[in-house]
Amino acid sequence: MSEESKVLKVTEFLTANELANLMDVQVNQVIATCMSLGLFVSINQRLDAETITLVAEEYGYKVEFISVDAAETIEEEEDSPEDLQPRPPIITVMGHVDHGKTSLLDHIRSTNVIAGEAGGITQHIGAYNVKLEGGREITFLDTPGHEAFTAMRARGAQVTDIAIIIVAADDNVMPQTVEAINHASAAGVPIVFAINKIDKPNANPDKVKEELAKMNYLVEEWGGKYQSQDISAKNGINVEQLLEKVLLEADLLELKANPNKPAVGSVIESSLDRGRGYVATLLVQAGTLKAGDLILSGQYYGHVKAMFNERNQKIEEAGPSQPVLVLGLNGAPQAGEKFHVMENEREAKEIATKRSQLQREQGLRTQKHITLDEIGRRIAIGNFQELNLVVKGDVDGSIEALADSLIKLSTEEIQVNVIHKAVGQISESDIMLAAASNAIVIGFQVRPSMAARRLAEKEEIDIRLYSIIYDAIEEIKAAMEGMLSPEIKEQIIATLEIRDTFKITKVGTVAGCMVKEGKIKRSSKVRVIRDGIVIYTGELGSLKRFKDDVKEVASGYECGLNIKNFNDIKVGDMIEAFEEVEVSRTL
Question: Could you tell me if residue 25 is left (phi over 0), alpha (psi between -120 and 50 degrees) or otherwise beta?
């Protein structure tokens, strides 16, 4: 036998049966070998790396371990040059918080993206397709600038062709800006600098260029090779010139892709939506994605039930460089995961199942249990504590960023563990898990279901809900430092279910509600919740019983209400009324 065939390429946690097939021996021989090593295994038992190596050596094989993803990669065909057609450039806008990334996109798209952000901070990667006046198309990715989103920015740099790095002229080159530049350089992406806010009285674009020069990024005006443009995103000054420079860079790259093959690309974001199920934002990188195609991404698969562009208009197909919202997957694939269009459903299902088994296996095996050394170390320190967290959120990228940032808060004395993180509302099983492992549940832009909330009260589990990522980080940090100052805490005073809606001219949409729990007051603030996900937070416009305005409505009664500046109310939505009270805190 040749040397090559004596090397087994395997993933860890192979079953005894699979190992036997790979080595071409009877499975009972493998089991016998394991027994002689003092291990009792069954035919479908998964073996760890050590056992696999020992058994393979008995039969004269060497073992090479490969990662889960490498084992299940899907072969892609090379395209012949004549099939390639020009495609629009994919451009990522990167930079520090509040230096104007989203305002630039708003100006280019002439719509308002900022309005939908919490605390004025982008918390997901957004993808937008823009047609310019000359008829050219560009796809923009908007990445969050907050430090917690390192992974997201790196991901943005990987799928992109050109990076626009925004620096505010009235500020310095910030650490996040440096990090964004490094991500772009590492991915080998051409960079165009946009120096924003030049219309501000204290703006000094030259100072920014000087700081860039110190980092070895010389702009063209100073004799370097990097293009830069002074702009004002808010007032639209010089934005056209910036786009010209970007398109010039794009022309140099001669971007091409073959649109006439099954689509491949990347997952930009995924979330769980009421009524629509799992929604994934995909960026097609080659080929054409059509409605009805079978896609496989990570451990999830499904037929494309419907596709929408970022303005929520239904489309039938998406070519290279187009971002689309896709319905029909059976889970929320991880942001950054590749997706492929598969021919055969059985094959897609097999690969997905295998990936999820391996993933679960790795998760189980890598959970740390306390060891004697660890106990010794804790006793030596004296007051070692653990903080277990269950993190739930509305989109995958934010959960990942939040979980990573929280784990980084661990200190010598306090270890932070994220024992579970997932997309979707906080369910009873999350509360049970938290109860079993003494964890705190953190909800990011999501809410617990009513059953989960009752269970949490009964089990005395702390559920903390946030809509801005660094509030969550700051608060956990404060809790860990034990410096808990009095805080403004939300107290949920009532939960209502919408039974019917009426459109009334001059007033808007009025909801007929039933108060399920607590007592709603005319002065309380309200949140509209659809399937555990917060859609709107605002104030009551009116609160009535029959025809009369009332100050409060208690549990078990019906009432009519409308919400100031918000009319998209549907039957079945929940309304949560809350008050903000000052409490001194303990953890």
Answer: beta
pTM, full prediction: 0.61
CATH T-level topology, domain 264-362: Elongation Factor Tu (Ef-tu); domain 3 (2.40.30)
In this chain, the answer to whether the domains covering 88-254 and 489-583 adopt an identical fold is: no
pLDDT at residue 528 in the model: 92
- Using CA atoms in the order 175, 388, 463, 401, what is the torsion angle rounded to 10 degrees? 30
Q: How far apart are CA 117 and CA 104, in angstroms?
A: 15
pLDDT of 547: 86
Residue with tokens 């100072």: 207
Domain ranges of the chain: 4-66, 88-254, 264-362, 367-483, 489-583
Residue 54 amino acid letter? L
Closest CA to 538 of 482, 491, 587, 576: 576
| Pairing state between β 306-308 and 323-329 | antiparallel
CATH code: domain 88-254 is 3.40.50.300
- From 430, 448, 436, 442, select the one nearest 477 (Cα to Cα): 442
Q: What is the DSSP string of 158-227?
A: HH-SEEEEEEETTS---HHHHHHHHHHHHTT--EEEEEE-TTSTT--HHHHHHHHHHTT--BGGGTSSBE
Give the confidence band of 496 by pLDDT, cuts at 50, 70, 90: very high
Total residue count of the chain as it appears in this document: 587
Q: Is 442 helix (H, G, I), strand (E, B) or coil?
A: strand
Q: How far apart are CA 26 and CA 29, in angstroms?
A: 5
CA 148/CA 139 separation, integer angstroms: 24
Fold for the domain defined by 367-483:
Rossmann fold (3.40.50)
Q: How many CB atoms lie within 10 A of CB 510?
A: 20
How far does CA 143 lie from the centroid of its chain? 11
Q: At the topology level of CATH, where does 489-583 sit?
A: Elongation Factor Tu (Ef-tu); domain 3 (2.40.30)
